[in-house]
Amino acid sequence: MQDTQLSIWTRTGGEAVKMGTLYVTDVDARFSYTPEYPSYGLPGLSLVYSPELFRDSTIVHHQSGSLHPRFRALIPPADEQNFQRKLMLAFLREKGIEPASPFEADLALLAHTGHGGIGHVDVFADDESAGNWYANTDSGPLVPIGDQFGFSLKDMISWLDADARFILESLGPTPSVGGAIPKLLVAIPEDGWDGRISLPNKVCTRRIDVVLKIERTQAYPGLAALEAMALDLHRDAGFVVPRYWHAEVGGLPALAVERFDRDADCMPLPLESLYSILAAGARDIVRHTDGSLDRIARVIDLAEPQLVSDRKAARVHLFKRVLLALLSGNGDLHLENLSFMGAAGEARFSPVYDPTPMRAYSMHNMLCAVPFGGYGEYDGDEDPLLNACSTFASSLSLTKSDVQDIAGELLAVTRDYPERVAALDSLPGENKARLTEIHRDIQQRLSALV
After folding, report:
1. Angle, CA 297 vertex, CA 292 and CA 300 arms, to 5°
2. Quick check: 142 and 185 in contact, CB under 8 A?
3. Cα distances (angstroms) measured from residue 437 to each of 195, 232, 421, 441, 443
């Protein structure tokens, strides 16, 4: 393959500025900040790649034929079932771009579609493309999604060339089901969902930026309602949760979830998954299900560079997320479904996203996508789940009293979980029964923690 150079920008400080350059060969990928970027005092490419620390250094990703997860998060994964990737590759073909390999396809997608997504990092083919894209701040009119909406390639993707009327972009990876569920970044009216959408905001307007998730009813019946219920459950448990609106797109159930990666002035906020953070310093973290959740404790406790502002709050948050995932049947709590938001030294866990109880569907019926507390390694007579929870709590420096308080709180919050599940009219009976049985089993076992 030919060497590829890409231009990395951000507008997190209010004005679009060039952050650096990514240079990719068939051997490695190298990123360097521009000489002036460290002086801006803006967040860097990653929490672990501080502009001050890497002012005079090049960040090298040595794995041949791949990109660092920080960049891979901006493009759909190479999955045959990935809706967004298929559309974007068809878009490239219309432009006469025919990548010869999956990795070359990744680079082409990054150059043409790696901007305007979640977080503060934007990737362009060159500086001129960046300037043209940032210059067009018109979000266009709010357009009803009617019969004309059929996942049209032109309407969905051409916004990247700044000439679309509506339907903005296909997101990259959809963590809960490997990118198989269509997700769109759009804006909706300030009063909430009414069937109209527009381009996302580049400057503040009287519109709400959302992630529009469209249910694939044949594969995942009831998924939109299930995620809405899970968001309500997490809010009741004390987590920060984005607003959402029930929607319908082309006759399919959908959920419009308010974005939290923009501030009050509509400027991007740094948002980075724990997968990206852990993979930066560990070669054995190749997939978002690698490693263990215990390793996040080391990130929380880092002294140099310090990433997290309130370490105790972060430890409690993570332990609560894991216990509530167990109790609700969300076996898909992997490293891309946990993110830090904010700059280094001020980072905190982001609001909850993608908490859907995927164990309702037989193909996703696993206890947890990423091991924790050595689960599966314990040979004693005690329940291995209880042992894992205790070991995990120790890795997070939580006391027995902390564990009792957290477990007691979550057992109380989920006391009516079977009723919540039963109230989901769109979820088939067999899925309800599976989820309820899972919950009751975990509920009984975790009661021993109180």
Report:
1. 135
2. no
3. 37, 20, 11, 6, 10
* 108 lies in some domain: no
Looking at the fold, whether 140 and 119 belong to one and the same domain comes out as no
140 and 128 belong to one structural domain:
no
Structure tokens at 162: 């700044």
Secondary structure class of 87 (helix, strand, coil): helix
Number of domain units in the chain: 3
Tokens (6 digits) for 392: 């995990």
**Structural domain harbouring 412:** 271-449
pLDDT digit string, tens, across residues 145-186: 754 444 343 344 333 333 322 333 332 222 222 345 677 778
* Paired tokens of 47: 């929490």
Percent of the chain scoring above 90 in pLDDT: 64
Whole-number Å distance between alpha carbons of 288 and 297 = 16
For residue 83, tell me if it sits in a domain. no
Alpha-helical runs (H) found in 8-82: 69-72
Measured CA distances, 126 to 4, 6, 23, 122, 130 (Å): 11, 6, 12, 11, 7
